[in-house]
Input
Amino acid sequence: MYDTLQPELLTASETEKALMERDPTYVVSWDIFKDNQLPYLELRRPFILGLHEEDIWRPTIYHAFSKLLFDKQKLLRSYTQNIDGLDYKLSVPPQSIISCHGSLATIACEGCGAPMETNTFTNLIKTQIKDIYKTDPSAPASSTPINCPSCSKPLVKPSTVLYGRNLPAEFHENAQSDASAANLLIVAGTSLTVYPAASLPELAGGILSETTRLVVDRDKAAGYRASIDIKNNPKDIMLEGDCDSVFLDLIEEAGWLEDLTQYKDSLCESSKRLLDGRLLYLEAKGKN
Output
């Protein structure tokens, strides 16, 4: 996204465009947003609408696994570095999810903190924010600010963390106690190089800890980061492979496939195909 950013398409001053030209991440920085929310909203427009209104972005089997853990009262907390909001789409309660870098799933004023109802915000995005990607013919030709109904300032946005702003307090308030209380810490699809999320395995302890640390990743090197040592620590386990495939295997081994099928229609197409293939295989195997 940032590598292909075209500042000239955004509603910004020449100074702001020069900053974004030099460092594309400025488009999601507090330095720009506090004076001009429009570049951020124009950049995020299709993702906001795709998540909340058009239902383009859907959860995966991994997200369904988290939901099954919650359903079975086995989920202490889900920590995510992703801002896509998919963790919330299967109705895992917000108090069971900590979005380390914020989330597109919730909307609030960056100034006063007042929340805005999602449908209200998406309607304003559709009618007040131009489409720099030229995929929505109904979008306005130019953008106008979206003001907060509480403080009247144009600082409303999805609750993602801007560069230059603090991470959510919930992480620091819960990380140590959650890591200490967990019997099993699952690390899925992350390089374990971005902090503070990468500190969770360290907080859960090393070779003397009672916590089992399970790493699911395509890259075996993930089994040797953030104090994890799958070679020398018997409580560190690596399952190498694609997250959806590995978690589907775990769901099958746990005897939860039937439980998973209730969420099938909510899953993205690739996850649906994977689940359908597994069910067909098991059906054919049972007939032989």
Observations:
- Strands lie at 78-80, 97-99, 102-109, 156-160, 184-188, 212-217, 236-240.
- The chain has a mean pLDDT of 93.
- The CA atoms of residues 147 and 154 lie 4 Å apart.
- The chain is about 35% helix and 10% strand.
